[in-house]
Amino acid sequence: MGGNYMEDSAIFFLELLLRVVLQNRDRIMSLWQMVRDHLYSCIVMATEYSLLLERAVVGLMRMAIRLLHREEVAEEVLASLQILLMIKPSIIPMVSRQIGYGLHELLRTNAANIHARADWITIFTVMKTVGAGAVPPAIVQVPTNPNENPPDPTYGSLEDMADRRTHSDGESVAGETRLSVYSDRGYTSDSELYENHPGNTDTASEKLGNLEDKSSMQVIPPPPTPCNQFTLQLGEELRQHDMRAMVKCCETLAFLVRDAAHITPDNFELCVRCIRTFVEASINGVNRAHHASTELKHPDKKKFKKRKERDGKRRMTGHQQERYYGHNSDDETMVENVPGGYHTMSLQLLDLMHTLHTRAASIYSSWEAEERKVTNEPVVTAEASSLWGKCWCPLLQGIARLCCD
């Protein structure tokens, strides 16, 4: 029984499992934990792209779309999307289209059911990761003991988050440094476990099992607000992105911004930062500039990567080779149209920032008026000083950044 047959069988049983779950939505609470853990294993443990990984990602998005309207499981469904941020960074671009299109459908049909700020943090973080190529942030582990106070991620700085980010494949880091980075960022992928403990399979499995038990208790820290009003730099580290995923995510942002009901004081700043991240990614030549600078800094790494890709293609099965070459040919076709595509997206993002700039005062004023009906000290304020730091200044910085293209 060859590897190709085993993967096809695994995909068949995965699709069968998802079909059974979606047909039994009324009893989802008794099935959810088992299904989520299985999808977690298929997605997080993947060390390279495979059709099984793609179908697991698509299955997770399908379940989220179909189950998000159910109040008893909506919170768990949105939290499960954090699994997508645990995919190995080198693999994310290969499944970014599936995630981007799935996220668009999810918000188009269920955006009205998302209210909590933590859920919007997850949504916008996934969106800019798969669409703009942003580096996934560290995920903070919340203690399971209710008597313990969970860490407050609100005050994390850019430097602290950068220290916890995942290193790229070609970086040579000392063992102790790598262990500390993996520990700080809140999760460890399967390949990293085997790299650090090649002979301790039981320990790796035990750690992975413990992580699965705690995965529902993970939170993504909110992005820090730029404190310097006199710089246009956002501070987001961007990598290579997929053009079609970026276009679809920009359409998703346009859908949210143009419907006044979806943008509230709880997610306004998150939306602005997400749009500014796409502005950084849409600057003309960002992909080519990133590729060229990487080649200049690491010429030996380029040769090693080519050798690794050549060896990997030799081990590919028939359908994997077909998908690999199809994906590359699509990318080449999109690259030929990059200037026009980026120009169109830049205009679209400019329009979105202008829309938010003109609506910011009315959004905050209406929410402040609603809160004053309940309490004399509303949390939301529409004062000019508050709107400048939260809304107007970041939006003007994003608009000015487009002028640097």
From TrEMBL:
Q: Where is this region: Disordered?
A: 141-173, 290-322
Bias (Basic residues) occurs at 299-308
Q: Where is the composition biased (Basic and acidic residues)?
A: 161-170, 309-322
TM spans (from-to): none
The entry's protein name is SEC7 domain-containing protein
Q: Which organism is it from?
A: Ciona savignyi
